[in-house]
Every structure is written in C-alpha cells, then in structure tokens.
Amino acid sequence: MEESRKPNHIPKGERIGYVIFSVFLLGYGTYGVWVNDLFVPGRRSRGVHLHDGTAWMMYGAIVCACLVMLSVVVDHYDRRDNETNYRLFADVFKGIGWVMFGVSLLFGFINQPHGS
Predict the structure, then answer these.
(1) Long-range CB contacts (< 8 A, 24+ apart) of 51-55?
(2) What's this model's pTM, rounded to 2 decimal places?
(3) Is residue 101 scored above 90 in pLDDT?
(4) Which of 99, 73, 95 is nearest to 86 (CA)?
C-alpha cells in the first residue's frame, strides 16, 4: 500500500532557531527565578521586574513557549500521522502560556513600586 500523506517538513534553519531560542529563553527564565528578579523588557516602557510568585508565573509561561517551539521540532522528525495531536498540544500550551504571561504582567505592574 502506497503512503499518500507527507509528514511535516520544517526547514533546518527554523528547527535550529527554535532549539537555540528555547535554550536561551529557558536559561534566561531559570536565572531570573534563581535570583528572584525576572526582567521583562518593554517595547514602549522601561519593562518590569518580576519577583516571587509573578516571576514563577512568567517562568511557567516561558516553559510553555519552549514546549510549543520544541513540539514543532519533534513533529518534524515524527513520521507518524499525528500532526493533529501536535497541533492540539501546541494550542493548549499556547493558551496556558498566554494566560500565565498576562496574569504575571498584570500582577507585576500592580506590585511595581510607583515613582521609579
């Protein structure tokens, strides 16, 4: 029986970029929670320093982002017909990650010292 489906193909440069960015992001987040000062730069502001629970919440968002990026890489090498499973996995962790990101920033801005 001839197989008619073609597995996902992700260009090599994109796969390498996802892996490198995931390692960097995870390292940055790990360092931030280790020193209890996870800095999130702002595009139109000075950014925000997250501490304690808000830093851990942002770290959770970072882990979710890394899982989503790495799932794309793993999907490339997985030759089984289960792309929908990877898509569902990515969608779930994107949703969880964005919620954690938003909640973390919201409480981070609320708890930010005023006047600095």
Answers:
(1) 51/111, 53/107, 54/104, 54/107, 54/108, 54/111, 55/104
(2) 0.84
(3) yes
(4) 73
Q: Where are the domains of the chain?
A: 12-38+50-110
What's the chain's length in residues? 116
Cβ-contact 38, 18 below 8 angstroms? no
What H or E segment, with its residue span, contains residue 101?
helix 83-110
38-40 vs 48-50, strand pairing mode: antiparallel
pLDDT for 13-68, tens place per residue?
Answer: 888 998 999 999 999 999 999 999 999 998 887 888 999 999 999 999 999 999 99
